[in-house]
């Protein structure tokens, strides 16, 4: 979509009030469910965060995740329950970021509310008894990544996002991967490679690997968990390989398999629509997020649903954008949701 094609009027005061109320309500609901789930193991979560600062985290793989623990430590100056206050602030930040991105992409309050509520429902469904500070920050960065991917033609927004992301989690590598894909995607449509994003993307990928490896090896002293010690199993760039166990989970067709499959389908649809409509940025972000989700299958544990929580915002944005802001989405709604259009509930 061309950003200059939007000529819709600015949001009315009633729309602003509606979105503020929705953000407050969704944030409160998410926090209540989160607090109830984590009250029993809050000390262990704080220990995992503090271990990063002392060089003795649970696992070596946590050692480069500096931003969240440092921010969480600041909350000790204002509260005796720092993680609770941290969660409130970052849940609100994510919901505000999601609202801002959804409105900039659709210019409709109704669709913005739909994206926010959908994301919140999915977030609550993905609550796990462990959720770390870096999970909250990743939610915000991934949500912003989709907006930049669809709307920004420049490199600077991605570099700024990378600087934040690289101190939060090693998955910052996917920002560089997106730029690489944006650079080479014109080949699919018989066009020349875009050298600038390809060069910057390659540089960010190299930087993400180098920074992650250096931080893990320099800052890590020993694991605080009994019997782990030097944590040699996490010396590689990624954690363990779990693809065989995850394959078994997928074959069972349980709720984890269904949730994971739904995420894959949305990002594959994004890839398909980007290819069909010759939208290079949409194609690139679709492939990027598909690979990001597949990395969970290889290196993560599908039954650890906290891994899906950072996806809820970008997943809602992707689905709303595909359905309402692309030609393919409008055609699909005309063919499959005509009964809603006849009742005046949607426009096709």
UniProtKB/TrEMBL annotation:
Keyword annotations from UniProtKB, A to Z: Membrane, Transmembrane, Transmembrane helix
Annotated transmembrane regions: 12-34, 111-130, 142-167, 173-190, 256-275, 282-301, 307-324
Domain of life: Bacteria
Stated name of the protein: EpsG-like glucosyltransferase
Organism for this UniProt entry: Paraburkholderia edwinii
């Amino acid at each position: 979509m061309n950003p200059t094609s939007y000529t819709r009027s600015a949001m009315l005061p009633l729309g602003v009030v509606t979105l503020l109320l929705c953000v407050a309500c969704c944030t409160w609901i998410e926090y209540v469910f989160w607090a109830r789930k984590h009250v029993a193991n809050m000390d262990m979560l704080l220990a995992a965060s503090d271990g990063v600062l002392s060089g003795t985290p649970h696992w070596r793989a946590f050692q480069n995740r500096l931003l969240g623990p440092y921010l969480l430590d600041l909350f000790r100056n204002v509260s005796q329950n720092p993680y609770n206050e941290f969660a409130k602030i970052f849940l609100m930040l994510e919901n505000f970021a999601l609202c801002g991105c959804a409105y900039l992409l659709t210019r409709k309050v109704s669709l913005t509310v739909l994206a926010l509520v959908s994301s919140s429902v999915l977030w609550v469904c993905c609550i796990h008894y462990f959720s770390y500070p870096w999970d909250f920050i990743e939610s915000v960065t991934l949500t912003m990544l989709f907006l930049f991917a669809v709307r920004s033609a420049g490199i600077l927004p991605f570099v700024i996002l990378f600087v934040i992301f690289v101190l939060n989690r090693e998955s910052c590598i996917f920002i560089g991967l997106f730029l690489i894909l944006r650079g080479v995607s014109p080949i699919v449509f018989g066009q020349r490679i875009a050298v600038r994003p390809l060069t910057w993307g390659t540089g960010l990928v190299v930087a993400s690997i180098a920074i992650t490896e250096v931080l893990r090896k320099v800052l890590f002293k020993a694991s605080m968990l009994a019997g782990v010690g030097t944590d040699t199993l996490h010396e590689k760039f990624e954690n363990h390989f779990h693809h065989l166990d995850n394959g078994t989970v997928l074959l069972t067709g349980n709720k984890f398999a269904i949730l994971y499959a739904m995420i894959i389908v949305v990002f594959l649809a994004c890839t398909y629509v980007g290819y069909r409509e010759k939208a290079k940025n949409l194609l690139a972000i679709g492939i990027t997020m598909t690979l990001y989700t597949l990395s969970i299958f290889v290196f993560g544990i599908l039954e650890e649903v906290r891994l899906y929580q950072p996806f809820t915002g970008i997943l809602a944005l992707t689905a709303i954008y595909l359905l309402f802001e692309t030609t393919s989405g409008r055609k699909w709604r005309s063919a499959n949701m005509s009964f809603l259009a006849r009742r005046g509930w949607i426009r096709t």
